[in-house]
Known about the structure:
- The chain is α+β, with helices and mostly antiparallel strands.
- The protein is built from 5 helices and 13 strands.
- The protein has helices spanning 7-10, 12-23, 122-136, 202-211, 218-223, and strands spanning 35-41, 44-50, 55-57, 87-88, 94-96, 99-100, 106-110, 115-117, 148-153, 156-162, 169-175, 180-187, 190-197.
- The strands form 4 sheets. Strands 9-10-13-12-11 form a 5-stranded antiparallel β-sheet. Strands 1-2-3 form a 3-stranded antiparallel β-sheet, with no helix packed on it.
- The longest helix is centred in the middle third of the chain and has 15 residues, at 122-136.
Amino acid sequence: MISAPFVRVLGEKIGAMVQKMFEEKGVEFRLGSGVKELKGTDGKFSSVVLSSGETLEGDLCVAGVGVVPATAFLKDSGLSMTKMGHIIVDKHLKAAAGVYAAGDVAQFPLPLVAHDTNIGHWQVAHKHGNVAALNMLGKETSFDSIPFFWTVLFNKSLRYCGHALKWDEIIYNGSVDERKFVAYYVKDDKVLAVCSLDSDPAVAQAAELMYQSKMPSGSLLKKNSALSSYL
Length: 231
């Protein structure tokens, strides 16, 4: 069970901060329990029983069950696929001669992390479509975009660029507790991702530095965290 929301992507410290922001607005979390049973009468939901034995009553239940690629029809197509059903493509988004795949369904090489990955976000899918189309037209193009997403939590802008599922350390500039910070996710002294809250345009600057292969190392950021100085 996870210890806080978004721990896998943002880490425990920022995840705990996000949880507190929601709790301050009346949202309650039950992170240590799974769902054992849904109850209702005459087809209408009335409560959920957790694995801990606790029962939560309500009028509506929203289930976030996740998704998997709808690629079962390609099982015998000869295309290379992952165990999860993602279609494996090269840097041109090509899966096979004359066949291209883009978006959430594609497992693709990401230069930033030097291995294949899958990212289910519209910004990546948008660029995928552009790259795939150009290659279909004979204009050889490689995917080299830096993943970027953002959202607003209770009037606070949360932004993230890069891709880091594992890291050695997170370098913080600013204060997570005060909800104004920039966080650098570092592995082997290389910054793989940057997250910020209420600190624009730090993440946009970081994305540009990553794209230009000018992103400073973790060691340098500890000495000088002003990203604009590296542009």
